[in-house]
TrEMBL record:
<dbReference type="InterPro" id="IPR030395">
    <property type="entry name" value="GP_PDE_dom"/>
</dbReference>
<dbReference type="GO" id="GO:0008081">
    <property type="term" value="F:phosphoric diester hydrolase activity"/>
</dbReference>
<protein>
    <submittedName>
        <fullName>Glycerophosphoryl diester phosphodiesterase</fullName>
    </submittedName>
</protein>
<dbReference type="GO" id="GO:0006629">
    <property type="term" value="P:lipid metabolic process"/>
</dbReference>
<dbReference type="InterPro" id="IPR017946">
    <property type="entry name" value="PLC-like_Pdiesterase_TIM-brl"/>
</dbReference>
<feature type="domain" description="GP-PDE">
    <location>
        <begin position="13"/>
        <end position="259"/>
    </location>
</feature>
<dbReference type="Pfam" id="PF03009">
    <property type="entry name" value="GDPD"/>
</dbReference>
Amino acid sequence: MSAVDHVSRSGKPAVVAHRGASLEAPEHTARAYELALAQGADGLECDVRMTSDHQLVCIHDRTVDRTSDGTGIVSEMSLAQLRELDFGSWHADGKPAQILTLRELLTLTLDWRRPVRLFIETKHPVRYGSLVEQAILETLQEFGVATPPSADHSRAVVISFSSAGVWRIRRNAPMLPTILLGETSRVLRGSAATAVGATGIGPSIETLRLHPELVDRAAASGRVTYCWTVDELADVQLCAELGVRWLATNTPAQVREWLVGV
Ligand code: G3P
Ligand code: CA
């Protein structure tokens, strides 16, 4: 069993740092991801968007306004323009930071001293549509991680609220694990995940509290559950009891500590 496999079969949920250790450091920056890795996170989560010159960058919002000292729509800005902005000083830690590209984050993830998984979320609707998925797959190919021997051994997972997006990823990279995210149980309890071939479902913690049966239903069809965003002790306990495989949190150090006791 490889170390990657071992991480997700310990019997407790594996910890995914949502946007990095994003409570302690500015989300989606190298600082937030390096901190999460140093804290022992098993996986990292990032949102990706495409710049006007077709580069993939790690950022959640459609605009740079909330998380930088600039203004503007990411898809209308070039990577060079984004590089001029400070994506760190808005955060309580007060230190400047540059935007990260998907390539830079993959390098950071794959070079880490133990195997860590990167959960890459596509944002929809986006100006560039399926071009984003195509670019993600090309980048994963470049890094040699687009065709893992099995989902359990993959270093990358593509996650999305878009069932069409998940379906396109599965069609073009059948070995790559995918998670269909959903904000309501309606999406996740039906056959949507099966129809698009997702290897897992991704309910929010609010949905899971109301519909804990989702985990068993997914397992019955061979699917794992990835739950977001889990920052409270009671929710960590719930995820552990239900057999959630991956738990995304803004506070990986705290959640790892809690998991010792559950
Ligand atoms: O990990 C999934 C979760 O990140 C989805 O919501 O808005 O934080 O991207 P959002
Ligand atoms: Ca996300």
